[in-house]
């Protein structure tokens, strides 16, 4: 069986790890090709520096077993389809030819919802043969789903991450500048037991799904089965 190619996009370094680090670790471990794309550098974050965040992102990607991490240059808090970097995103989708793409679901941080919208537009434009200013042959991604960063929205489906919880947490701890309060740190929601909040949500989703821990997702493209999958088996 050919490995699945997965692209997980985040508005900032650490978004993908928060929302679906366990899912990434599971797929990487089974031999699928997983890429992470951070569309901004999070340069307006209250703690840490751009350079520190890039180092932390590289360590987190290595922990999760990601094939490669890409860093685009959309400006933090100005994510827009009209920005010239949008063409780089469309070109990247054409280059990687992912089977599945993930992006953030909307929440209290405007960049998360904006990232989801920009990525969804780029998925569409990557399939347009005559779309201008982009490289590569057109590619149509079959599936697009959204993961959760903040809050506890109602998922459309769950991924069982019971076997990869510890790997996800290790990846999150790589972002020490964001989650660990130190002398001189600015108080933010991330420094206030944020990893513990993510852990509790994963356990709550697991209870809802009938397993130890799970990550939740919103369905954008419809599921298509040739037959109903048996519960407790991979579909």
Tags for this model:
235 residues; alpha/beta; Rossmann fold; 7 helices; 15% strand; globular
Written overview of the protein:
This protein is α/β, with parallel strands linked by helices. The chain has a single domain, classed as Rossmann fold, CATH 3.40.50. The chain has 7 helices and 7 strands. β2, α2 and β3 form a beta-alpha-beta unit. The chain is globular and about 55 Å long. It starts with a strand and ends in a 16-residue tail after the last strand. The mean pLDDT is 95.
List the topology elements.
Blueprint: E1 5-10, H1 15-29, E2 33-38, H2 50-64, E3 68-71, H3 86-96, E4 100-104, H4 110-126, E5 143-147, E6 157-160, H5 165-173, H6 176-179, H7 194-209, E7 214-219
Parallel strand pairs: 1-2, 1-4, 2-3, 4-5
Antiparallel strand pairs: 5-7, 6-7
Helix pairs in contact: 1-5, 2-5, 3-4
Helix fraction by DSSP (H/I, runs of at least 4): 25-40%
Order of helices and strands: EHEHEHEHEEHHHE
Number of helices: 7
**CATH-assigned homologous superfamily:** LmbE-like
Which residues sit in consecutive blocks of at least 5 with pLDDT less than 50? none
Report the CATH C-level class: Alpha Beta
Strand order of the largest sheet: 3-2-1-4-5-7-6
Characterize this entry briefly:
The protein is of the alpha/beta class.
């Amino acid at each position: 069986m050919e490995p699945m190619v997965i692209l997980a996009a985040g508005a900032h370094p650490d978004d993908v790890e928060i929302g679906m680090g366990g899912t990434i670790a599971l797929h990487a471990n089974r031999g699928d090709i997983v890429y992470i794309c951070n569309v901004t550098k999070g340069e307006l974050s209250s703690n840490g520096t751009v350079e520190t965040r890039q180092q932390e992102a590289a360590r987190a990607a290595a922990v999760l077993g990601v094939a490669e991490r890409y860093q685009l240059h959309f400006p933090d808090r100005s994510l827009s389809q009209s920005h010239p970097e949008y063409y780089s995103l469309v070109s990247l989708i054409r280059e990687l030819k992912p089977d599945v793409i993930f992006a953030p679901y909307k929440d209290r941080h405007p960049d998360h919802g904006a990232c989801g919208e920009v990525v969804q537009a780029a998925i569409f434009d990557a399939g347009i043969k005559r779309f201008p200013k982009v490289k590569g042959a057109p590619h149509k991604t079959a599936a697009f789903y959204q993961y959760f960063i903040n809050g506890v929205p109602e998922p459309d489906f769950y991924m069982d991450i019971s076997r990869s919880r510890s790997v996800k947490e290790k990846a999150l701890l790589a972002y020490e500048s964001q989650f660990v309060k130190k002398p001189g740190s600015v108080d933010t929601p991330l420094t206030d037991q944020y990893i513990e909040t993510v852990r509790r949500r994963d356990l709550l989703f697991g209870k809802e799904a009938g397993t130890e821990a799970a990550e939740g997702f919103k369905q954008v493209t419809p599921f298509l089965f040739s037959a109903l999958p048996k519960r407790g088996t991979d579909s």
